[in-house]
Amino acid sequence: MQRPRSLVSLAILPLAFAAGFDLIACSGSEDATSSGGATNSASSGASGSGGAATSSVAATGGGGAGGGGGSNREAGSAGGASSDAGADGPFSGDVFVPWFGGPSYYGKWSHGFPTDPSFFPIAVWLQSPPNAMRYANVGIKVFIGLFDGPTQASLTLLQAASMFTICDQSADWRANVGGSTIRGWLQPDEPDNAQALADGGYGPCIAPTAIAAGYQTMIANDMTRPVLLGLGRGIADTNWVGRGSCTGMTNMYPEYAKGADILAFDIYPVNEGVPLEMVAAGVDNLIGWSNHAKPVIADIEASNFNNTTRPTPAQIKSEVWMALVHGAAGTQYFCHRFQPTFSETDCLDNAPTAAALPVINAQIAGLAPVLNTQSVANGVTVTSSVQVDTMLKRFGGATYLFAVEMRGGTTTATFKLRDFPASAAAEVLGEGRTIAVAGGSFQDAFSSYGVHLYKIAY
To answer: Are strands 388-395 and 54-55 parallel, antiparallel or unpaired?
Structure first.
């Protein structure tokens, strides 16, 4: 495994952007792409296709490789088992979206993520442990990647901030396999992209067989932790040129998925000038390519990394909830800035972003027990002039409906809940308002990739 790149080398790497490629390394680099890739959002899953008229599924969970995304799938195609009683609710006939199993999935490993349903992974990519407390204060729970590997000094700082890490097997990892700070091992980053060569050019992507072999080595070294593999923009933007000679070879992704227990991918729409909904397309694709069997973590842009356009707090929230509604089992923020000057904490140094992150993360954490239940596929239909995707859960005697507008327009969506009582009320979480639900139906307005989260009591 290559050693991570240093802060110094990361600071000078923006010259690579002109070539139109992601930054490439193992556990110490990240995607900081330019505009080199052609975008075809219609080819990136249903969430990247044209505006929806009527959709008929209340939950996502991966639309399969390259299509069938999100809430445009018919409930009968969700593949989940039906039940005589709804998940923690009084609904017969619920059909469930296929999933990896929720928090109990991590019970395979004695040092993996907690199996407690109140834990939901909220991570940040490749940060320095001296900043761990700053990130903990905005609701981050996991550092993924460590510049210098898991040194004793780094792990001590993370432990003091109650921060977990997923890192490579380097530095002092062997001396810490009995500890509780390291919760997973990290594969080389973005092996699906064109790989940087010593002469400054780019070679082909890393073969999936090499990733699978690395996985076997990692688990032979330590079987008590899962292995995470982060993939690149090609997951969502399947014809992106940053994969070099591997461009368009989506058949490689199911093979890559065999080299990890947790999967992640990155695409940064605002910075890269592509539609926000490509985040959802990537979640759909990767869940499908892994056959719904492994958790998928979505990387979310939270910085202006190449001196282009900074995502607004509203856009960050939209990307987060697009990912979650489409079945992501965790989020990971990308916080670096490379131009005009380097900073790894750009998301904390920008006041509006720093104010938004704890609010977004606190809402996710508060809803963790709900998010950590299996979604219902046939609980609601949506009628809207602009596509609105949904995820429906039953928890604690209530129905939770999470909805995201998948385009930048304005619409009034009509939700029709199946088998609902004649009278109910939908509390719009975090907005201080309640909507009456009559005969299972209610309406709400959406604009500019708007997000509304409903708790419906009956």
So the answer is: unpaired
Q: Candidates 2.40.30.10, 3.30.450.20, 3.40.50.150, 3.20.20.80; correct CATH number of 7-40+103-371?
A: 3.20.20.80
pTM of the model: 0.85
The single residue listed with the structure tokens 């890739």 is: 37
Give the pLDDT band (50/70/90) at residue 224: very high
- Spatial distance between the Cα atoms of 218 and 202, rounded to a whole number of angstroms: 27
Number of other residues whose CB lies within 10 A of the CB of residue 352: 12
pLDDT tens by residue, 324-378: 999 999 999 999 999 999 999 999 999 999 999 999 999 999 999 999 999 999 9
5-59 pLDDT tens trace:
333 333 333 333 333 333 333 333 333 333 333 333 333 333 433 333 344 334 3
Parallel, antiparallel or unpaired: strands 142-144 and 164-167: parallel
Q: Where in the chain is the domain with CATH 3.20.20.80?
A: 7-40+103-371
Residue 381 CA to residue 178 CA, distance in Å, equals 49
ω before 269 within 30° of 0 (cis)?
no
Residues 6 or more apart in contact with residue 356 via CB below 8 angstroms: 313, 316, 317
Q: How many CA atoms, within 13 angstroms, populate the side-chain half-sphere of residue 121?
A: 33
Structure token digits, residue 349: 């140094």
pLDDT at res. 18: 31
The answer to whether the CB of 136 falls within 8 A of the CB of 146 is no
